[in-house]
Write a structure and sequence with these properties.
Length: 315
């Protein structure tokens, strides 16, 4: 926090990401046949794709002449939380694009749409549809994404936008490295539980583009098999396999349809509010290493370029 009064527990999880791209049909084919999501709904020109977990969808695809990030969607803890977040948004330099209203897609529930001080569009939903047929650990789903792990967003000034995520959405800093701030959703007093080390990360950059979207796989084995499947389909591993420091998660990165960077990950560290945030001095690798294992080459030039090309929609 930044010295302000701590907000109540307002956000429960990261749900989905909305992207626009020129060839929706080709992207759908890729995300179903190669990435292993399933179509859960279609509305007009929008395709909604789910994982094996309970979230209604993890990704929505719609047509855009150029690739664009339309929104990142978070789930609220209550209907009242939506009103609180809208009020806090205006207090902390953001913009309320849509006040509380019935959600406009098949996931249902209520929603607000806000914009952070650097222009990122965030949708906050409550009461949306959840799947009761989720069996993420079943053998039939051993090679399918369960849910989103995190979205990493570039920022030209991380320090100036961090207070928005802390004071409006209640995120907490988990770790700060030389190049990234990892922030998490506290689990709240009611749960007394553990949650993902981070659901959003803000990467130091000279732009405010999408860095990547990470999908949780059931096991390390599935991350590796997914890497092989992607290579068979003509998508090279652009970074990995490896294991990160902050978050302790295993990873493989790819450049997917229309240049969107996507990650298969597993074994994300689970932390509670007793976790002590690390500083850049705590996260240094020996020369020549870019992860804990030390077997991965650095991120490819193709990956680095893709991580600076897709911006949020301009409103």
């Amino acid at each position: 926090m930044t010295g302000n009064i701590k907000p109540p527990h307002l956000i429960s999880s990261l749900r989905s990401v909305e992207i626009g791209l020129p060839d929706v049909a080709a992207a759908e084919k890729f995300f179903v046949e190669t990435w292993h999501l399933d179509v859960v709904a279609r509305e007009a020109d929008v395709v909604y794709l789910r994982g094996t977990g309970s979230d209604h969808h993890l990704l929505s695809l719609s047509h855009s002449d150029t690739p664009v990030l339309l929104a990142v969607t978070l789930k609220a803890t209550s209907s009242m939380a939506l009103e609180t977040i809208a009020r806090l948004t205006t207090m902390h330099g953001g913009c309320v694009l849509e006040t509380k209203h019935p959600a406009k897609d098949s996931s249902g529930g209520e929603a607000i749409t806000i914009q952070d001080p650097q222009g990122r569009v965030l949708k906050i939903v409550y009461g949306d549809v959840c799947h009761d047929d989720c069996v993420p650990d079943a053998s039939a789903n051993a090679d399918k994404p369960i849910r989103l792990a995190h979205a990493v967003l570039n920022s030209h000034d991380v320090a100036s936008v961090m207070p928005f995520y802390e004071n409006v959405l209640g995120f907490k800093l988990s770790d700060r490295t030389k190049i990234m701030a990892f922030i998490r959703i506290p689990q709240g007093h009611a749960t007394q539980g553990f949650g993902d080390h981070h659901s959003i990360a803000l990467a130091d950059a000279d732009n405010d583009c999408l860095n990547h979207i990470a999908f949780v796989m059931p096991t390390l084995e599935s991350v590796m098999r997914g890497g092989g499947r992607m290579r068979d389909a003509g998508f090279d591993i652009e970074w990995g396999p490896g294991r990160h420091g902050p978050g302790d998660n295993a990873f493989n990165y790819f450049v997917g349809p229309a240049g969107f960077v996507i990650e298969y990950t597993a074994e994300v560290e689970q932390v509670d509010d007793s976790y002590v945030a690390g500083s850049p001095a705590d996260w240094k690798w020996p020369q020549g290493r870019v992860d804990q294992w030390g077997i991965s080459a650095p991120p490819s030039s193709k990956l680095k370029q893709a991580q600076r090309e897709i911006s949020f929609i301009k409103l």
